[in-house]
Amino acid sequence: MCKGLVSLPACCLERAKELKARLGILLQKPIWTLSCCKIGKNKKFQLYLSMFLTIFRPTLEECLKWKESFEKLLSSRYGLCAFTAFLVSEFSEENIAFYFACEDYRRTKCPTKLLTKAQKIYTEFISSEAPREVNIDHETRDITKANLQDPSPSCFDQAQHRIYMLMAKDCYPRFLHSPVYRDLLCQAKPSTKPTNLPHLVKKV
């Protein structure tokens, strides 16, 4: 057990185990389901994240790549976990949950499952009474609702694009300046690749 964890209350340890289990799932699955993103909100989240990082530690090289683009962050499973942790701490993890729910939906081949998933995504994220309502404009909401009359793999495309741009322009820059990302850089494993240092030529 990590140093200092013995003194924590039992409820904290149980919550840490839950976080480890849920984020650990993301490292094993290439596509998220709605249930994968329901991590929960807690004021001790930074503590749980720190415990998680003692078990799953990306390399420094990988962490630095996340600064290159939002796309590179999302393409990394560790980066995805870290970004999700950041969104949870800001009470806005519904954005990443919706985005990957749409990704999963688009890959669905069975027409029956397509209809079921479309209704679930709409109820969960788009409806005005949705428990995890995402921030989209009224026009996009209306278009998405109309698309559900005849669900196709592209019926959430406009709404998904809106949320992607929201995360890329707003959440992503704040993530790069957040304690979550700074902690990751500090705790990251050293790169296994040899560093190419310039040769020192002794002058005669």
Automatic annotation (TrEMBL):
Keywords associated with the record: Signal transduction inhibitor
The reply to whether Chloroplast figures as a keyword in the UniProt entry is no
Give any Pfam family that matches.
RGS
- What are its GO biological-process terms? negative regulation of signal transduction
Where in this chain does the record put each RGS domain? 69-185
Domain of life from the UniProt record: Eukaryota
Q: Does the keyword Transcription regulation apply?
A: no
Xref: InterPro entries: RGS, RGS_sf, RGS_subdom1/3, RGS_subdomain_2
Write down the PANTHER family for this protein, in alphabetical order. Answer: REGULATOR OF G PROTEIN SIGNALING, REGULATOR OF G-PROTEIN SIGNALING 16
Report the protein name in the record.
Regulator of G protein signaling 16
Q: Which organism is it from?
A: Poecilia formosa (Amazon molly)
What's the source species' lineage?
Eukaryota, Metazoa, Chordata, Craniata, Vertebrata
